[in-house]
Amino acid sequence: CRSVCRRAIDPAVEPRYQNSRGAMQLWNSAAMERAAGKALFVTEGIFDALSLEELGFPAVALCGAANTGRLMQALDAREAKPERVILAGDSDAAGQGMNGKLREQLTTRGIGCAALALPGDCKDVNEALVQDRDALQAACEAAATAQEVQQQPTLEDEFLAYLGRRGGAAVMSTGIAGLDKALDGGLHAGLTVLGAVSSMGKTSLMLQMADTLAAAGRNVLFITIEMSRMELIAKSAVRGTKARARSLLDGKLPEEKVRGLISTYRKKTGGRVELCEPDAPLTPAFLDEKVSAFCAQHESPVLFLDYLQLVAAGRAGMTEKQTADAAVAMLKQLARRYDMPVIAASSLNREAYRPGSAEPGMSAFKESGSVEYSADLLLVLKYRTDADKEIKTGPRHLVLTILKNRFGATGESIPLDYEPEKELFRDGAAKAAPRTGRNIIR
């Protein structure tokens, strides 16, 4: 048994349903074999699928309205597919969102589908079975045998179904109050690119965001090309403590201390951060395969990539710009396909490294392919004052400037205090001093 679902007998008990920890698997996937050339019913919950099996209809439970990717992978792997799929989601927004998402994915695969019309005011299949078994039987037979009518949904219904598919994952707090405020609550689905010169703290900032999102229940895939997986674990484990990542990595801490740091980190994030250190060149195709597999197994996914310029060429003879363009295009495609935030670190052009150069702007990404055009959110991290002085101070006073925000205000500068030895970024608004010029710290 790979996953378990329990339901309270007493309807007053909360929560009514309780799943085993970790990602839930498809329930009753063997029903796809019995449904070859016939109708396959798909439900959200196990008890709904059990209700349909009770009536003699092959039924699979997704074990989560957002878990449609697993079903698509299972169908793609089968030569004998069902003639049609009956969408049996709950009558609420999440269930209808599931139906809409499945319809889109099935249509692209050439598999017909139809929605099950629940009798009366029933909220799900199991309730319909309890209230009127014969009515549910008739509704299922009608859905399985009726000629499919392609009815174009209204724009209102289409948009509401989109909102239902997104559920509560539309806005995700970064854990930094000033940044969340500037971004209307936090990170949104789409491509975010974070640019900075080397040794500024890009990786530490993204890793802190990743851990914050995981602690809030999001499933994070952090692909690291520049640093090792163990180095990232060390950074996260010592964040905000007196321990140092270098001491942890060098084995200078007692075993009990090491276990305590790692255990605390694991418990805070709930084991929802998957740190991926590719053992082969990370081409756009490899990136697509890895991320797609992760999203098929996890709800509310978030992708971090460190960093953009280290993505390998997809074929021989590609220039650096062509390689970067292909990487950006793939990241953008993944953000759209899975309606998730994708955050990628990026280097800046050579001009940004020259002493006395102007503050980094959109032009600083010119050598990074199509970043400035494709990114939904473009951020640049820089020192608030003289870089040589800030490097020697603790904490370092930085500022994160919004150069582009497709759905919000630009030009906002968020002051941050960075303590490298603690691997910790804090909101620096209380200590910020105003600056002259275009980007004013607020």
What does this structure look like?
With 442 residues, this protein is of the alpha/beta class. It has two domains: 5-166, Dna Topoisomerase Vi A Subunit, Chain: A, domain 2 (3-Layer(aba) Sandwich); 171-431, 3-Layer(aba) Sandwich (Rossmann fold). The chain is built from 16 helices and 17 strands. The protein has helices spanning 31-34, 46-54, 68-76, 93-108, 125-131, 133-145, 155-166, 177-182, 202-215, 229-238, 245-249, 255-269, 284-297, 320-337, 371-374, 387-392; strands at residues 5-7, 17-19, 39-43, 59-61, 84-88, 112-115, 171-172, 187-188, 190-195, 219-224, 273-276, 301-306, 341-346, 377-383, 396-405, 413-419, 424-427. The strands form four sheets. It has a nine-stranded mixed β-sheet, with helices on both faces. A four-stranded parallel β-sheet has the order 4-3-5-6, with helices on both faces. A two-stranded antiparallel ribbon has the order 1-2. A hairpin with a 7-residue loop joins strand 15 (396-405) and strand 16. Helix 3 (68-76) packs across helix 13 (284-297), helix 5 (125-131) packs across helix 6 and helix 13 runs parallel beside helix 14 (320-337). It starts with a strand and ends in a 15-residue tail after the last strand. Residues 431-442 have low confidence and may be disordered.
Termini separation (Å)?
A: 54 Å
Give the overall shape. Answer: elongated
**How many strands in all?**
17
Helix content: 25-40%
Attribute tags:
442 residues; Dna Topoisomerase Vi A Subunit, Chain: A, domain 2; Rossmann fold; 9-stranded mixed sheet; 4-stranded parallel sheet; 17 strands; disordered C terminus
